Amino acid sequence: MPKQMCLRLWSDAKIPTMAMLHFSILLTASLTTAFGQTAPLSERMADTAMNTLWRDATKNESGTPAKWTYDHGLVLKGIEGVWHATGDRKYFNYIKQSMDQYINADGTIKTYKLDDYNLDNVLNGRVLLLLYKTTREEKYRNAAALLRAQLKTQPRTSEGGFWHKKIYPSQMWLDGLYMGEPFYAEYAATFHEDAAFDDIARQFILMELHSRDTKTGLLYHGWDESRKQRWANPVTGRSPNFWGRAVGWYAMALVDTLDHFPEHHPQRAALLAILKRLATAVERYQDPKSGLWYQVLDKGDAKGNYLEASAACMFVYALAKAVRQGYLPAAYLAVARKGYQGITTQFVEPKGGGGVNLKGTVSVAGLGGNPYRDGSYEYYLSEKVVTNDPKGVGAFLLASVEMETAGSSKRPGKSQ
Fold first, then answer.
1. Most buried among 147, 206, 305, 372, using CB within 10 Å?
2. Residue 311's closest CA among 399, 216, 404, 227?
3. CB–CB of 333/284 below 8 Å?
4. What's the pLDDT at 60?
5. Which of 383, 297, 275, 286 is nearest to 341 (CA)?
């Protein structure tokens, strides 16, 4: 069990003291004025998630069979951040209860099928590792080992890149890097699988190699090695557009994987270079007025395009954490600050009982499948935009913890 806040003080990142204090004052004042509350937004959002949005996660009250899903896993990662920041045991208890409905005593996972070979199903392994490290219960280690076993036999491209899913042969998607690699890296670091880090680095390097556009610096949503998909460019294999949340998944995957990547590994420098190239592009396509990012990143002026919440939260989290951890120069904190101010201004609204709602998250976007998703500009604008989507809420929790920590080096913790 952690005895201190797991987040390092932002003074370690050498942010100027007066600038940090100024941001803290402005952020606190603006949020207090806007919402009439002094509790941090991360705690208010976490309490909303636990008490209103997904209270049935621990009791299955809705009557709908529970499924092992990545989007609720992202919410739990966000709540984990709030637990580390506050030390309040209620957040850990919620995480444990949420996972316990799936994990049998022998470590098998209800509703999970290894031979689906779906990278989405691996993300929750990070929560299992948290539970194992905190409780030392073997069922969590066994369940995590089951997900690690999936990666050992996950279908791959000819160069060794993981297929996103077995039902999507020969395809790598940006989303898949977040689903698989942070867990893969943490598992390898925890159980001393040192040789795995070559493979982990390979996934990021191949994804950038095949999906990065040299003109914009942005990454296309997907790449099809076979070039058989209708969405794939017949020459490059790339999908046709830059979807905001997909790039956000990749950005978060980099910073979370680097946390566990060996300091002296020869490929660490390559991952840091990828992150710096990506951060440059993310800053370039930040809307100068709102501080946010568009659903289709490079078409801000195109008809129908809109500013989207989950991508903004992911970029803010990735940039702010990368500065705190020393992966990026301190100047990128200003980009994150501007983005977070835009999020709180445009997407966050008060909710009864002291909670908050997060508006403006696109519910889903993908490639292929049935009905077929062709990756066109029109397709990305056709999906529904909703309030309190778990992917947006989880990313908002992560971003809020980072920005609240950036704004105060003396955030109080509670007994654990």
1. 147
2. 399
3. no
4. 52
5. 286
pLDDT in tens, 316-326: 999 999 999 99
Q: E-assigned strands of 282-393? A: 348-351, 355-358, 361-362, 385-386
Tokens encoding 123: 């993300």
Is the Cα torsion angle 222, 226, 232, 235 positive or negative in sign? positive
Asked if residue 203 has pLDDT above 50, the reply is yes
Contact 1, 407 (CB under 8 A): no
Whether 231 and 222 have beta carbons less than 8 Å apart is answered as: yes
User: What tens digit of pLDDT does each residue of 153-173 get?
Assistant: 999 999 999 999 999 999 999
CB distance 146 to 114 below 8 Å: yes
User: Among the options 56, 88, 115, 175, which is catalytic?
Assistant: 175
The span from the CA of 357 to the CA of 409, in Å, is: 27
Q: How far apart are CA 414 and CA 2, in angstroms?
A: 12
Residues 190-194 have a mean pLDDT of: 98
* Widest Cα–Cα separation across the chain: 58
The predicted pLDDT at position 228 comes to 98
Lowest mean pLDDT among 55-59, 139-143, 389-393: 55-59
- Residue 294 and residue 308 in contact, taking contact as beta carbons nearer than 8 Å: yes
The alpha carbons of the chain give a radius of gyration, in whole angstroms, of 20
For residue 403, give the 3-state DSSP assignment: helix
d(CA 149, CA 386): 35
User: Does 410 have pLDDT greater than 80?
Assistant: no
> What whole-number percentage of the chain has pLDDT above 90?
84
* CA-to-CA separations, 190 to 112, 144, 185, in angstroms, rounded: 23, 11, 9
pLDDT single digits (tens) 129-145:
999 999 999 999 999 99
Task: Write down the domain spans for the chain.
Answer: 10-407
Question: What phi and psi values does residue 408 have, to the nearest 5 degrees?
Answer: -155, 120
DSSP H or E run through 224: strand 222-224
In this structure, the number of other CB atoms found within 10 A of the CB of residue 141 comes to 19
Stated as kind and residue range, the H or E segment containing 318 is helix 309-324
Architecture of domain 10-407: Alpha/alpha barrel (1.50)
- 287 labelled catalytic: no
List all residues 6 or more positions away from 176 whose beta carbon is below 8 Å from its beta carbon: 119, 120, 162, 164
Half-sphere CA count of 97, side-chain side, radius 13 A: 15
User: What is the three-class DSSP state of 361?
Assistant: strand
What mean pLDDT, rounded, does the chain reach?
Answer: 90
